[in-house]
Amino acid sequence: MKFDKISQVSYHFIAMLKLPIYMDNHATTPIDPRVLEAMGSCLREHFGNASSLNHPFGWQAQKLVERARAQIARLLHADSKEIVFTSGATESNNLALKGIAEIYGEKGRHLIMQVTEHKSVLDPARHLERHGFQVTYLPVDSYGQIRLDELERAITGKTILISIMAANNEIGTLEPIEEIGRIAKEKGVLFHADAAQAVGRIPVDVEKMGIDLLSFSAHKMYGPKGIGALYVRRKNPRVRLAPQIHGGGQEGGLRSGTLNVPAIVGFGEACEIAARELETETERILRLRTRLYEAVTRGLDEVTLNGHPRNRLAGNLNLSFSGVEGESLLMSLSEEIAVSSGSACTQARVEPSYVLKALGLAEDLVHSSIRFGLGRFNTEEEVDYTARRVVQTVRRLREISPLYEKTGSGKKSERKPTLQEGLPK
Ligand SMILES: Cc1ncc(COP(=O)(O)O)c(C=O)c1O
Hints:
Elements: H1 2-16, E1 21-22, H2 33-45, H3 56-76, E2 83-86, H4 89-104, E3 110-114, H5 119-130, E4 134-138, H6 148-154, E5 159-163, H7 177-187, E6 190-194, E7 213-217, E8 228-232, H8 261-299, E9 303-306, E10 316-321, H9 326-333, E11 337-338, H10 354-358, H11 363-367, E12 369-373, H12 380-399, H13 402-407
Parallel strand pairs: 1-11, 3-4, 3-5, 5-6, 6-7
Antiparallel strand pairs: 2-8, 7-8, 9-10, 10-12
Helix pairs in contact: 2-8, 3-8, 4-5, 8-12, 9-12
The chain binds pyridoxal-5'-phosphate.
């Protein structure tokens, strides 16, 4: 009888759990069925070109675009006129940096950012350096945050733009955006934030945060791929921008090309859902993350938390497992659990994460890191299964690892940050 009960429980458990488990929500998110529903009817029924203003097909498409624009603007506390559609955050970041440099280059040729920015900010910055601009790359502390006094010191009379990411894609660390916005305003410098990981996951208010330009993307918030936006402030100050894609003059001339109406509709719906559910969703995801962290650290010693203990995205857990190659762990798990080591966006090249290196993490810990990205559709069952598999796999890999012997099994290294429960401050 007792045995029966146990097997019933485990059968129930397995029946509810569908493998592989997706826990890589920083790379991209699955589309929300409600978003899909909104896009489906648009794809089926409204094929008009939103620029065709001489017939009802175009009018209908334009109406849908403007409705979505308003939904998106509401999530940011912005005005719809301040939303420029792009293909995603990469394009938005490029438009922001190059577009500002082109217009304000006369005034000054200096930009400031942080070393842990995403490649889609760092690469345009390198491009600008090749064209005579000077870029200051601010270092980060061991949690991945910049120091505000260093930011202030870096600003000169020639600085035209500060570009600081709102949330890091690898370690989830949140930057003090509101304080940065205040400093930028005081010094009269424009402030761009790459918020690809932040919009839909933390409250973003461009007014309160003093943001002048903001890049974000639908596929990080349960919307479709290939659509994103750049918020461009229109007053106090009115930000001017040089277009980087020329053509039919769509999006107020800032980004030409026929608008992808179904994707825009999906993006709008994703923002509307986020605005409504962000608070309850964050709490639920936080609980899942705490559960995962506690189960993993109960089962294993020498686990290091990377990133900020509290000021981080609710769904982010970046851990290093001493003595284990992150890549080997990833491979051992990959058929059942989708997680990531380092940044997925640069995985064509296998190189140690520059973000983890910037935190001052020891080389072996950089190589032994795994990023768990929890999201809307993860369940407690998935978390429990993942924790069990991670613990088993790390133990097995450590048994055969010469690296683990060298560091000394069970050795307690210097004080490490532990995850703090609750919302970021
Ligand atoms: C912080 C950050 N910025 C920019 C991007 C690029 O976004 P997209 O895929 O929409 O071009 C990503 C995607 O990984 C990201 O995490």
